[in-house]
Amino acid sequence: MAGPGVACCLLALLALASACYIQNCPLGGKRAARDLDVRQCLPCGPGGKGRCFGPSICCADELGCFVGTAEALRCQEETYLPSPCQSGQRPCGSGGRCAAAGICCSPDGCRTHPACDPEVSFSQR
């Protein structure tokens, strides 16, 4: 007699636990909640006109990119912040984002990239 009673209790617990997990899921799943949490990276550079693209990379459209210089020191603070950040307007290269005219940056470094050239982008529209 204990067998069917234990089985019923286990099924009830399983149903209850599954309901809690389903109830707590955000709309669109876990990835959707993660995408909403991405904030803009810290400002950096002269007059705070740039944005951090990595722990030692600061870029601005008007100024270009500073890599490993005093202008990029503030970007080291991103390492200690708990939420992820994103700079740049559009993706480029392999995991990078357009940082300045013609320049694509990722946390590893910066390279020239045609996707970030404003003249090419304008003529393609």
List the main descriptive attributes of the protein structure presented here.
125 residues; alpha+beta; 4-stranded antiparallel beta sheet; 3 helices; 10 strands; disordered C terminus
What would you say this structure looks like, in words?
The protein has 125 residues and is of the alpha+beta class. 30% of the residues lie in helices and 27% in strands. It starts with a helix and ends with a helix. Mean pLDDT is 78; it is low at 13-25 and 121-125.
Strand order, main sheet: write it out: 2-3-4-5
Total number of helices = 3
Order of helices and strands: HHEEEEEEEEEEH
Taking the sheet with the most strands, its summary is: 4 strands, antiparallel
**What is the share of helical residues?**
25-40%
Shape: elongated
The portion of residues forming beta strands comes to 25-35%
**Number of DSSP-assigned strands:** 10
SS content category: alpha+beta
Average pLDDT metric: 78
Rg for CA atoms: 23 Å
